[in-house]
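Hi everyone, sorry if this is the wrong subforum. Our group has a chain we'd like a structural model of before ordering constructs, and none of us has done structure prediction before. Sequence below.
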Amino acid sequence: MNRKNLFRKIIFFLAERIVNCNIFISYSIKDSHKAHKIKNIVEQYGGLPFIAPVSIPGGKDFKEDIKTNIENCSLFIPIISQKTSNSPYTHQEIGYAL
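Answer:
Right subforum, don't worry. Here is the predicted structure as tokens:
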């Protein structure tokens, strides 16, 4: 099974479980295309995705808003890639989630 088919199976499995759920998507800025693709799928299935910096209203404390949204999410989706290893923010977000 290739990655694309595995990804689709995971999304379909989660689809009925994510309606109205707060979902935090953690990613390296270099993986933003993947993060936005997941965000769009989550929205399509009725989930409520949080994706920084898009989901942070202007004037809010960036770091505090991220921590609060991680604490309040029902599902935390980290996008793990080689690019993640160079992203201190992604490491912090995963640490907050644990």
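For your construct planning: Helices lie at 3-15, 32-44, 62-72, 88-97. The first strand starts at residue 22 and ends at 26.
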